Inverse folding.
């Protein structure tokens, strides 16, 4: 497996586009994206666990119930959530794409992101769709930009891998910067592949993957209403269709995880106002569940996140977060270290502080990517969670997000 250019257009048969249609006031920001597969593709999705769900999720669930899709339409700037006519608008978005591209409206994944509770006018979308269709090409960039809200950078990745002697390609784009919290986040993630895999096995792969990828990301503790991860697999690579577990399925899962893990790191590192990507790696846990619980608790701690913003090696906040996590751990065995490209500093052994250089710790924690290494010394299970520091700018961004 190797990283390649192309994003969601790396795989055979996929094109994409993005335009400014007028949902967002800033005309320099694209706000409508389209992804099209040349042929109908196997489709799988996972959604937010929030009881309040955006209307597009309801429509998408209905559309992919048969396991297939051919296109994705997504707008930014308005979440189409908590709107009386939200379902109608989401269905109309599908109908408009259906008419423009001559594909079935029930083969369309629809998504929205932005402000919750504001009415979404279909007019700019309807007026923008002809240009959106005209701009379709084997280029990911415009679509990746069009799904962004407070994101500061597009999030794009793709890989090639081999199944049964055939080269397959997989790529993804994502948006996500704030309202990010397990399980799922204010993320929209769209993955495309030309690998041939049945809808059932595609869903199995995605559902298993998110447990160790997107459900391990937290920026601010808020679980969004519109989270969605979708995968379309059109089979145009020509490999024998994956219909059961085995070596080919394992290879596909490995490629899918490469895409999702990369996007997880990008989402966490681009958290609203963030200056640092935090990666909490827990080892030596008695069970996977304990490792997951501990890593999430640490990465979600506001006090710990604030300390990382200040490059303060306040390891006591790590122990504190572990202590209230509810995980069954022996606090007298825990080791903690901080690591970055500047080096590693051990700060806690067997649950107690040790002497360390504050100057070296400052150097380690001033870097843009920081690992928090926690060894529970109670077993062989491990887990990794991703987050970011908590900064002044986070409050500033969210203090006037709507206005």
């Amino acid at each position: 497996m190797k990283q390649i250019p192309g994003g969601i257009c790396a795989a055979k048969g996929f094109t994409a586009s993005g335009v400014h249609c007028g949902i967002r006031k800033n005309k320099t920001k694209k706000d409508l994206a389209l992804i099209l597969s040349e042929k109908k593709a196997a489709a799988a999705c996972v959604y937010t666990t929030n009881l309040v769900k955006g209307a597009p999720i309801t429509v998408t669930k209905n559309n992919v119930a048969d396991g297939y899709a051919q296109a994705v339409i997504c707008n930014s700037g308005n979440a189409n959530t908590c709107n009386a006519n939200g379902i109608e608008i989401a269905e109309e978005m599908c109908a408009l794409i259906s008419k423009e591209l001559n594909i079935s409206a029930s083969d369309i994944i629809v998504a929205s992101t932005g402000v919750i509770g504001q009415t979404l006018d279909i007019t700019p979308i309807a007026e923008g769709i002809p240009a959106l269709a005209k701009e379709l090409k084997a280029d990911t960039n415009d679509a990746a930009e069009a799904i962004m809200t407070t994101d500061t950078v597009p999030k794009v990745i793709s890989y090639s891998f081999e199944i049964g002697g055939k080269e397959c390609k997989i790529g993804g784009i994502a948006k996500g910067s704030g309202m990010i919290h397990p399980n799922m986040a204010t993320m929209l993630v769209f993955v495309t592949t030309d690998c041939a895999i049945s809808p059932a096995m595609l869903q199995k792969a995605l559902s298993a993957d998110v447990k160790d990828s997107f459900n391990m990301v937290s920026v601010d503790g808020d679980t969004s209403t519109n989270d969605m991860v979708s995968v379309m697999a059109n089979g145009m690579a020509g490999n024998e269709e994956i219909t059961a577990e085995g070596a080919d399925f394992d290879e596909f899962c490995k490629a899918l995880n490469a895409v999702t893990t990369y996007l997880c790191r990008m989402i966490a590192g681009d958290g609203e106002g963030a200056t640092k990507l935090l990666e909490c790696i827990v080892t030596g846990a008695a069970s996977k569940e304990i490792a997951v619980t501990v890593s999430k608790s640490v990465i979600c701690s506001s006090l710990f996140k604030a300390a990382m913003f200040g490059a303060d090696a306040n390891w006591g906040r790590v122990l504190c977060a572990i202590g209230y996590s509810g995980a069954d751990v022996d606090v007298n065995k825990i080791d903690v270290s901080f690591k970055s490209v500047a080096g590693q500093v051990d700060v806690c052994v067997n649950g107690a502080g040790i002497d360390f250089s504050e100057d070296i710790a400052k150097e380690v924690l001033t870097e843009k990517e920081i690992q928090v290494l926690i060894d529970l010394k109670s077993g062989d299970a491990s887990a990794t969670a991703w987050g970011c520091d908590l900064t002044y700018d986070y409050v500033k961004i969210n203090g006037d997000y709507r206005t």
About this structure: The longest strand covers residues 32-47. Residues 247-269 form the longest helix (23 residues). Residues 179-185 have pLDDT under 50 and may be disordered. The domain at 277-399 is CATH 3.10.20.340 (Ubiquitin-like (UB roll)).
